[in-house]
Write a structure and sequence with these properties.
Two copies of one chain form a homodimer.
Chain A: H1 2-11, E1 13-14, E2 20-21, E3 29-30, H2 32-45, E4 53-57, H3 62-72, E5 76-79, E6 91-98, E7 103-110, E8 119-127, H4 131-142, E9 146-156, H5 161-167, E10 171-180, E11 187-188
Helix pairs in contact in A: 2-3
Chain lengths: 195, 195
């Protein structure tokens, strides 16, 4: 997605060889128009999949997921990282190990919102090692629903999450695929190099 | 907002005299079309305020805030409850005391996204005792920006946050104002009773 790549180049910052800061339009400040275009792009790529639900993870996945859900006319569920006071019984939970934070956290979705007839699109802001995506897939499987594919805003293609998920047979659509962040330079994988 | 009130009546659950569960369309599962209509309503109410930014708090405020920002053509910033790895320097922080959880938490916004020329609309899913709203107002004041008003999806009008903020002179626009949740019955304040 050309506009997203331009935005990453002009407003993103390669903080290290593995960390890309995009807090100017995605992770802290949000550009609503870009989110709408991202939603249109995901909706277009998955429009023939007969989706019934979109699942994301709080917080940065919510804006692109809601824009996609608006166009595809399906509800969006955001998995919670923390247990809510008003959301206690009937939770489906999975564990996410964060390499960057070196800790394991539970994420949960209320079982009443997913069932065996659901065809689910997972949307998230980043794909790195795939741990969050695998936990969402695990929750969807526990609900006996089907994870139809993943819509990722930014894939760090130099980490192994994308390969891992594609090898397992999941359709992964990433709107920007980062080849490298070395030397504080953001490099993308060109379309020709696409897996 | 009639449609929102109907949604609360049909899909909301009064869990106790103070807790309203709206996880079917706002707090966990999100209805994107309703969020769009909420965004249109906020945009319409604040369209003459020359807003430059919208500020909300992760996670449930993000969807209505982004829809409002899309229509008003302004960026949305979500205050973070947890410090991010890629968001460390230049934070403006304030404390929120949660009566329900009985704990104090920091919320933060990066100082680079707010400045003295900003006219800011605060959007949040709930207004109860006003602690989160006051913390956001405090952050906006520390940035020398102006908090122009508050757009609240659901105000628990039987708690004192709304009165507190209005007495301080803030314009508070709540799309649904709950009078009471007693006896597991959701009652709204009618328009005639509006402050």
């Amino acid at each position: 997605m050309e506009k997203l790549q331009q935005k990453i180049l002009t407003e993103g910052i390669a903080l290290s060889n593995t960390v890309l800061k995009v807090d100017r339009f995605l992770n802290h400040q949000i550009d609503p128009h870009l989110m709408k275009e991202i939603g249109e792009e995901f909706a277009n790529r998955f429009k023939n999949e007969k989706l019934t639900k979109i699942v994301t993870l709080e917080s940065s996945g919510i804006a692109p997921a809601v824009m996609t859900g608006l166009i595809l006319d399906v509800p969006v569920i955001f998995a919670r990282k923390k247990k809510s006071l008003t959301l206690t019984e009937g939770l489906i939970t999975s564990k996410v190990y964060s390499y960057t934070k070196q800790e394991t956290n539970d994420i949960s979705i209320s079982s009443k919102f997913l069932n065996k007839d659901d065809r689910v699109l997972i949307i998230d802001d980043f794909l790195a090692n795939g741990q969050a995506a695998l936990a969402l897939i695990d929750i969807i499987a526990k609900a006996e629903a089907e994870a139809v594919g993943l819509g990722i805003v930014i894939e760090k293609a130099f980490q192994d999450g994308g390969e891992l998920l594609r090898k397992k047979g999941y359709r992964v659509e990433s709107l920007a695929r980062i080849k490298s962040l070395e030397n504080n330079t953001i490099q993308f994988i060109n379309e020709e190099e696409k897996i």
